[in-house]
Amino acid sequence: MANPQLHPLEVNPRTGEPFLRLRKHKNVILTPPRSSDIPENIRYLNDPHVNDMLSGPPVPYLLEHAEAWYKVISTPSEETLAAIEAARDMPDLITVRHCPVRVIREVKEDGEDVFLGDIGLLRFDEGRLLAPDGLQADDEQKAKYVNANIERPVGDPEIVWSIGDYLAPSHHGRGIMTDVLETLLWDWAVPRMGVRRICASAFEGNHGSIRVFERNGFTVTKTVENWAVVKGRMRNLHVVEWDYSTAVPPSGSS
Ligand SMILES: CC(C)(COP(=O)(O)OP(=O)(O)OC[C@H]1O[C@@H](n2cnc3c(N)ncnc32)[C@H](O)[C@@H]1OP(=O)(O)O)[C@@H](O)C(=O)NCCC(=O)NCCS
């Protein structure tokens, strides 16, 4: 019998892999990372339709970057699944540190799936935005706020979370990331991690990303001019925020 602590994840009967099915795009699922994703990740993170709007991944994005990234994202997934397994017999659903599923895949009619992208929910670690006077604060002040956010215990409603995502260009504009974020937020982040506050950002001009956030109830709270030079250009940054206390749960959320 599947471990009830996986709820609402399902388990692929063929592979035993847990997955979360999107609320609207029923043929799209989120799963744990697989090492076989590395070539696709390299392909998309070298595509200017994707990488130009991302500050993290370097260009060119090489095998060594993808392998290091795979370690970074697979460890929390494995640890969370281990915690869920250890709690198998507990009567109530436990609150967990991470989301064990994050890789976006399209399931084909024959049951095989295709890598489509990635969404990560991580503790916010941008001191310039976390500290109250962050843009002026010194490094020590910024580090103090970042460390406090990282050290908060699992399930603490004061944790500020952040989101990073990308989707294969072939699938842009079909409402997939809007659905991915809604599903991640309401089917896992809120009920299973106790996520209550999120602060994310997108470069000015990234209309698609801002719309994904707005359609999920995020509000643009500020725009920071001359945030950083990324991929050779000075960027302005839109900051978007979400707060559970004022959020309107979409239908189907408990
Ligand atoms: C941003 C991104 C994740 C959006 O995903 P998506 O699945 O294409 O978005 P959706 O289809 O759910 O669209 C949501 C809204 O954005 C709009 N949109 C999507 N892509 C767009 C684009 N390239 N240009 C303008 N608008 C776009 C849609 O029309 C829709 O708007 P609406 O609500 O007014 O109808 C995707 O384009 C992407 O991966 N971009 C490159 C990486 C990136 O920017 N990541 C986010 C970093 S902050």
Describe this structure in words.
- InterPro entries: Acyl_CoA_acyltransferase, GNAT_dom.
- Residues 94-236 form the N-acetyltransferase domain.
- This protein has 254 residues and is an alpha+beta fold.
- The protein has a single domain, classed as 3-Layer(aba) Sandwich (Aminopeptidase).
- Helices cover 31% and strands 25% of the residues.
- The protein has seven helices and nine strands.
- The chain has helices at 38-45, 48-51, 63-86, 127-130, 139-151, 176-193, 207-215, and strands at residues 10-11, 18-21, 28-31, 103-107, 113-123, 160-167, 197-203, 219-230, 233-243.
- A nine-stranded mixed β-sheet has the order 1-2-3-4-5-6-7-9-8, with helices on both faces.
- Helix 1 packs across helix 3.
- The longest helix is centred in the N-terminal third of the chain and has 24 residues, at 63-86.
- The radius of gyration is 18 Å and the shape is globular.
- The two termini are 24 Å apart.
- The mean pLDDT is 96.
- Bound molecules: coenzyme A.
- Coenzyme A binds next to strand 6, helix 6 and helix 7.
- Residues 50, 53-54, 165-167, 172-178, 202, 206-209, 211-212, 215 line the site of coenzyme A.
